[in-house]
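Exercise 7.
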Amino acid sequence: MVRLFVGLELSQELKQSLQFARGGVEGAHWQSDAQLHLTLAFIGEVPSSAVVQIEEALADIHFDPFELALEGVNMFGSTRQPKTLWAGVANEAPLQHLHDKVQNALERVGMETDRRRYKPHVTLARFPRSLHAKIGDWLTANGVLRTPAQPVGYFSLFSSQRSDEGPCYLVEARFGDGMTHDVNFEFVECRELETL
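Solution. The predicted structure, written as tokens, is:
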């Protein structure tokens, strides 16, 4: 079995612009640069034999390139018992469109996907279950977050592995017409992850 999801890799410039937002809340497990990504669709555990079928379905997806910029921060959970802290997206429309295409392609090959309303975001921190953390003024202090835009001409199929430092992600395949670009991507694949 392999644990899979579909998402976008982030440029090094965009990751660096999130550096100052990743801190200041006790008990938070801050995501390292290697863990930062934007999920388009979560697939979950599938047999290894299904990976080729998934890749073939994703390879049929075509979309117009767009720009991704992050804007503002928010959280899932409550201020007393947060689940995640995250950065929002400046323009959600192209991501929603691509998400729908990915979702439809996966469902055509029998993959069950999460049907909850899609909210594109980049997770900055996770919290252990049942932890009562104090967010304090983190939301206000980082509400002005704005990142440079990066071009998006492709998306990726990731596998996820667990490690002592948190999840570790491998890019299994890339899909899209815009896979050649000038943006400097550095995706660290399953080495010891630093804890920020």
